[in-house]
């Protein structure tokens, strides 16, 4: 998935930029999980998405009054899927380790990559990903895992797949960064009311928690988006997609360092299986399909 934002050029090599981007996103998720005891997953999601929307609207200043009905509709669908994806992902890491949740979520883009290919050999990557899921569970030798967390992560994966397909169509309705910023506005409109229904009270947000929410939003949105654009300017898209497949491992390492989440050997093997499947699917889909600007 390519997260598009046109930002100033910075003199940073592409590989460090991409590694910093992945670390920023997963560091933001680890920080967000640390706020769960104070705000709950729904409150943290509301802060993260709401503040991200404000940031993007202030940075890119889309002309909302000039949007057509078709653009509003496209942005509303895109934003609702984006918001629900964030909400279910944050809900999942309430129950399971960050590294496992990200690994399961990566099944979404993997499904899109395999689904866009007509090569039967890509069934190998499906089987490898299936093995990864099996190894995550206690049946595969992993530690006990909360079934609800597993289910929520898989829902987040399905929403990520939908987000990729819908996002690729946004270029028909928007140019540049306008669609992303308007879409994030609709993500906030979707998530904030749901968070209130799930028990989040705005009165819970103190000044320190608001600052932490701003940091989560910056780490999860503005900073990684800009770093990814630096990498995209200098790396072939195929290599970019393959390197992005390392994100579950980055999440697992940061989950260990920041949240002290330990994984079993079989769960690390599961992460390796999904990464290998994602790399293989990205390689084959780039070889067999035309370039798509998303």
Please characterize this protein's 3D structure.
- By secondary structure, the protein is mainly alpha-helical.
- It has one domain (14-288).
- It has helices at residues 14-34, 36-60, 69-92, 98-105, 107-115, 123-136, 147-169, 178-197, 207-234, 237-244, 247-259, 265-288.
- Helix 4 (98-105) packs antiparallel against helix 11 (247-259).
- The protein is globular, with a radius of gyration of 18 Å.
- The termini are close together.
Q: Mind describing the biggest β-sheet?
A: none
By secondary-structure content and strand pairing, the structural class works out as: mainly alpha
User: How many domains comprise the coordinates?
Assistant: 1
What is the CA-based Rg, rounded? 18 Å
Oligomeric state of the chains present here? single chain
Mean pLDDT: 85
User: How would the global form be characterised?
Assistant: globular
Number of helices: 12
Task: Assign a percent range to the helix content.
Answer: over 70%
Report the span from N to C terminus.
8 Å
Say how many strands there are: 0
How much strand content do the residues show?
A: under 5%
Low-confidence stretches: 1-10, 287-294
Element-by-element helix/strand order? HHHHHHHHHHHH
Layout of SSEs?
Layout: H1 14-34, H2 36-60, H3 69-92, H4 98-105, H5 107-115, H6 123-136, H7 147-169, H8 178-197, H9 207-234, H10 237-244, H11 247-259, H12 265-288
Helix pairs in contact: 1-9, 1-11, 2-3, 2-8, 2-9, 3-7, 3-8, 4-7, 4-11, 4-12, 5-6, 5-7, 5-12, 6-12, 10-12, 11-12
Could you name the key traits of this structure?
disordered C terminus, 294 residues, mainly alpha, single chain
